Amino acid sequence: MQGAAVWAYALRLFSVSPAPMTDALANTFDAPETLQEPRRWSDGHWTAQVIKNEDDDGWAVSMTLRGEAEPALVGPWTMGRDKKNPKPLDVSAFHTLVKTASEVLRRHEQQLHAQLNKNVRITTAEGQRLRVALAIVPDEEGATATLSAQDELGEELARVSVPPTFKLTPASAAAWAEGGFQRVR
Questions:
Q1: What is this structure's pTM?
Q2: How many CB atoms lie within 10 A of CB 75?
């Protein structure tokens, strides 16, 4: 009984409560792991790894985003002064690599978006100017696609499902509009 009283007194004296300790421990697990070694740097999101270039006697560096199996960027890496070993990674090189790898990913996303979302502008026989858009949604179970038409003010005139293989061209858009925006098969 006396030991329990001493423990309670110590807790009150030092204002220690179990909850903040638990929260503090939980936060350490959520924090990204940083690493700064000569051949490997990580900020918890990106990891730079200097690797032996299998094609020649040089070195390469790979940049991998956390959670991804494949690197987003692989490029040549500078040799050190001894001309045998790689130059060690440093903070400025790491930040440059992060910026470059992020740009590569952004360009890939833009390219994919452009492949999946196309639009053309047409003028109907009545002189109405339209923007016809094709949006493809990829899916492992089966991609879907939507064809839509908007007037000059951006008001949607029609929206239909189309096969994901539909080819949007000015001619196909004009034919769809002239056909009264009927469902395309």
A1: 0.64
A2: 13
